[in-house]
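Hi X.,

You mentioned you wanted examples for the new student's onboarding notes, showing what a folding record looks like when two proteins sit in one file. Here is a clean example. The first protein comes first, with its sequence line followed by its structure tokens.
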Amino acid sequence: LEARAEALFAGTDALGSKPHPDASYRLLWNTEYLVAAMDDPRLYEDYVARHRLLLFLTRLSPAVPAAHHAAGVLLTALLEQATSAEQTDLVFYVPNSDIHRGKTLLMQAICCLAPHLRDPATAALVRPHAHKLLFQSNLVTVRQYVELIIACYLLALPHEAASLLLPILSDYATRAQAVSSVMHLGTVLLHHMPLVGALPGPAPHPGDPATYEELRLALVKGVLPWICSQVNPIRTYALVLLSTFDMFHDRARSLGLLRGRMDE
């Protein structure tokens, strides 16, 4: 595994800005080998091997074109593995079991590639898998990684946030885990989005928010009913999101950026 990982990085160095066909083939071959190795149960027990594998993934620099390409190939394969029928249909697993360790390693590996998601084209690779990931039954130690990778995707493509998050908030019979994750993701967006301005891309559906102000308002309106939830964690997460919006509201007012709809 270590030799293949080293070959992967040697391949990216050899490619440079003018890929050679043989080098490109070797790069793809070694990338696929590393993806297949993620299913090896020996990695679940060998923490040194797990650490070294994740360390190798962090060495794929977004600034190197070949490494960025390899990261995209890895990300696609790992996301497909994470949202396979075997993973999605799993209803329950025991903490610290092989399944739990395998899921944790898989999501850690995906998160190691998060710096590449600053590129909108690479972030778009998460799009077909985001909904499945949110609705999987996962322990909190796995779910935190799921939320991180989806947050990176939405921060790179904020115009797609409404179409992913708002339908979940409007379904009051949906899974509590999915709702709590949406609350976390909404809070992250409120913290890191610009105060004003148009969203960077076209809305996926007619009527979706077109500006950051409209997106904030849509998130708050979607969350408001959940403050009456009888599920304590959901009610708490809803209040955290609303308090984050309140901080934004005060900041916008101090800068003279408030608009009529926001003030209402």
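Then the second protein repeats the pattern, sequence line and then tokens:
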Amino acid sequence: MVQQSILETIVQQIHYHQSRWSFRIQKKLPFNVFDRPSRICNEIPLPKQSKIDSHLLNALYDEIHITEGVKDVSERLCLIAAGLLDRPIFRPFSSRDTHVMHQIKQSSICSVTSAPKAVHVDENTAANDSTKYCKILFDAALQSGKGARSFKVVPILHELRDASHGANGPPDLSARAADSAIHLAVRPAVDVCVSKFKAFQATQSIVGFRQVVESFVQNITGGKIHLENRSCANIRRLLHSATMELREGNHVDIDAFLEEVASELSMLSVSENDEQKQI
């Protein structure tokens, strides 16, 4: 379904630009004027009863790859940025191969500036989350691309540059440089990306968890007790332990935790009644 939607969007963009005069001018130019975010049309004026070009759709079908999972998506983007995905030879000094960095940077900017405005609070939260996810992925890709071409990060590039004639170097040395770039630049960038995703997701879980507990305490006590009260020290200790579990990515049984909180609150109520009787 995702693949089909992406394909149809690409085909619509292609047909839209092919119908414009600027496309005919582009074919006569030695450079590409369409490789800019501003060229993407968000609202394509499609004619009535328009049909998607099935031939173009089928031709593009095998070119669209769907990758799932933070690690796999990040690794693919980082390899693309480094010029190491499905490439016959590693060419870190090629200006043509480096152009992909510009495309990724533009994609990163678009993911932030072109984020849809939500009507409802839940939609706005989801939109913000999606923007942050994209930003983390593209930042990791840029880090990987820069690192793979850095002499400081990948020292073997000094040797490759001295032995290269133009953008291409000796195949054996290029292969060793590619392995070194993957080990020293790509994998660290992927690890950082995965860690950031886990931290971001953990933060969301912790915030939501604390809100549920706070609301539960308010409902049970009729708004008379807050977690910040001195009498809630034991509940805060329980909450801290649960928070640390969530931060480590572990599961916390919210129902069992709320039962513990209810037990602590009942003990507080008994203690308060005893104090009132003594008075």
